[in-house]
Amino acid sequence: MERKVHQSSNWRVWRGLRVQRHWMPYLFVAPAAITLFFGLAPLVFSLSVSFVSWNALDGMAAFEFIGLENYRWVIVVDDWFGKALFQTLWLLIVGSFFVQVSAISLAYVVHRYLGRYLRALVGVYFLPLLVPSVAFIFVFKMLFAIGGQELPTIGVLSALLIAAHDFSIAGVQPLAWLFPARPISWGRYMDAIWAFSMWLRFTGWNMMWYVAALMTMPTEQSEAARLDGAKPWQELLYVTLPYLRPTLFFACSVSFVSAMVDIGSVGEYMHWLAFRIGDFGATSAIAIIVYAILAAAVWILWRFICGRPDALALTPAHTDETAIGLASQPSRRAVLIQRLKQWLLAPDQNASRLRGFDGLRAIACLLVVYHHLCQRIDVSMAIPWVLQPLINLGWKSDAGVCLFFVLSGALLSHPFWTRYLDGGACPSLRAYAVRRFARIAPAYWLALGLSVAGGLIWFPTAQYVVERAAAGAFFVSALHYVTFFPAEMDPTLWSISLEALCYVMLPLMLWPLWRAGRTREPQRVARYLAMVLIGLQLAHFIIVGVFMTDRVDKGWAYGMIGGAKEWLPYWNPASFMTQFMLGSYAAFAIARRARDHRPIAADEHDQMALWALAATGFVFAFLGQMGVPSLLTRQPYITPILPALVALLLYHLNFSARMAIVFDNRVFRYLSTISFGVYLWHWPVMELLRIYWVPTFRMFGVTSGTTWLMLSAAVLVLSCVLASLSWHCLEKPILRWARRSSVSGLY
């Protein structure tokens, strides 16, 4: 009887709950709603405070509405926020990129090959995240001796490097040429150091998420890819990565927020501005700007990684068939734009030219000119910080020289590879020498002679004028820091000597292939080129170790000779020949693929060219440094990473459909034709404008953005005019004579 009563009471309780069943959905979403409220309330409060002038110590009654003044001050006036934001965004993009690449690669290798050690490895990589942020940052400051007087003057890492330098056996220091003799100034590498700290701290955390995703991944697609003969990297790229897109979106989003909060400079600047200065209005405006940037970054990740959001998907409109005939005619403006587009993208009639090369040469020329123009503007006074990234990119765009070397290596070696793969004899070296001499020497000698004469007039205090001019005339100026810049009036001529040395070295590098035997196996060529590249890299580091310049009068403060002493021996023929041979590798791949009977999928090459262009731009924008060797490779222009990406871009551009047409437009084709003259004459034009028009048009001297734009336009127009005259009156006639006088054709 008691049991029945107990069951009846339980039934009434459950029946009461069933009556209130319509409240259950609200109960389930209550935690999310509460979290959303506590997240939105500070955001709404910050948004309201960003429109007022307020010091928290004065209470809520001290609100003074000032409209958008806080935003105007933050965006236009406050350079400190711009610097902090750029540093944080650099960490956010570069650090997150390396974190995700490392985490995905480690997770794939561990899941596929090291499954039995899965827990131990994940724990080891996850361990740095358990260290508190304060302790983690303090350890890095101890390692690199940065910030704070309580830290030692020589960091742990510098002490270890100096100890390796001083290590000796029987009085001989075998490692002295590899390691520094004095403490390294790590301050110039702070961005890279914090990016490395972000990589070390968050790689294990992201790896854990990717391992968890791979454990739930179906094995059918991977097994099918292996049966079809896919290699591990192809399986990772085409099978695993598409499956990891949702996890990649989540991991990147959280890494972005963590980088902004834990490691970036924006949080520190906001804390200083609010609690040290008391300007909560400007701090709130910064918070809203940062929130908008993070929201845009997350949306971009969602849009381009995890597919287009459903809310933004556009369904095709259903048009009435009767309305087609009533459609209005295109406007006159649309017709003009269409005709201009057709004229601009008209294909080149010369089918023998390598596709996409002209466009890339024009881009290289514009990058070099833009770099030298950006050196003459005072960024802090001329433009607001919002536009300063354009100038920062200009400072790094001296990498256009690298593009020139890769292009020259590809163009000059392509005829050699064509003959080699067709089983023919080596092209005539006499014809090669005559045409290279005719292409470079006349215009270069004219520019050098006029620059030396102008230097005697406008730079009377220049040193070693005769020696520098003589070395430049014989194309050996790059072998010593005194003669590295052959003319004070046109220092850009330094690269011509290095390029001429590469012209001489190219046939010497390729000649052994004809002497090795009659078999023309592409695999053997690929192995030979890899050995050549490795040998050039070893030669570079030997040159740096043996021929390092002393510290006397070294640096740009001592003029061009002191600046050349800073560059050498890093700017040496071995490093630039590496760029040249990477272009030759691209030409070999193009010649080999052109002789393959398989159909060429132009759409795939368009996609790969786009990815190669994005990777090149990423490395150029975030890893490039102006006028110093790369931190990663200790070579100019991030060699061999950047020239290898350019070579990959050249290969895919040549077989692409749309990308090659866009690159080889009419304007770029003509600019490519006169690019050598533009390179030779743009610096003397800038100097003449400085002497006779705007005296402040010197290094970091222009303080007006409008004046700088006018001068830049004048430099570009005048340089193109002089280059056109040089091409039509000097270079083209001599090249035509050289082709007629050659014993055998090279092209």
Quick structural summary:
This protein is an all-alpha fold.
Please supply descriptive tags for the structure shown above.
747 residues, mainly alpha, MetI-like fold, 2 domains, two-stranded antiparallel sheet, 70% helix, globular, disordered C terminus
User: Using only CA atoms, what is the Rg?
Assistant: 31 Å
Q: List low-confidence stretches.
A: 148-152, 309-327, 743-747
N-C termini distance: 108 Å
> Helical stretch count?
31
Report the principal-axis shape. globular
Kindly state the mean pLDDT as a whole number?
81
Word description of this protein:
It is a single chain. By secondary structure, the chain is mainly α. It has two domains: 79-145 and 183-262, Orthogonal Bundle (MetI-like fold); 356-741, no CATH class. Helix content is 70%, strand content 1%. It contains 31 helices and two strands. The chain has helices spanning 2-19, 24-49, 69-77, 79-113, 118-130, 133-144, 156-166, 190-215, 220-227, 232-243, 245-263, 265-277, 280-304, 321-324, 332-344, 357-374, 379-382, 388-396, 400-421, 429-458, 465-473, 494-515, 522-546, 559-567, 573-594, 602-623, 641-655, 658-663, 666-673, 675-692, 705-741; strands at 52-53, 64-65. A two-stranded antiparallel ribbon has the order 1-2. Helix 5 runs antiparallel to helix 8 and helix 23 runs antiparallel to helix 25 (573-594). It is globular, with a radius of gyration of 31 Å. The protein starts with a helix and ends in a 6-residue tail after the last helix. Mean pLDDT is 81; it is low at 148-152, 309-327 and 743-747.
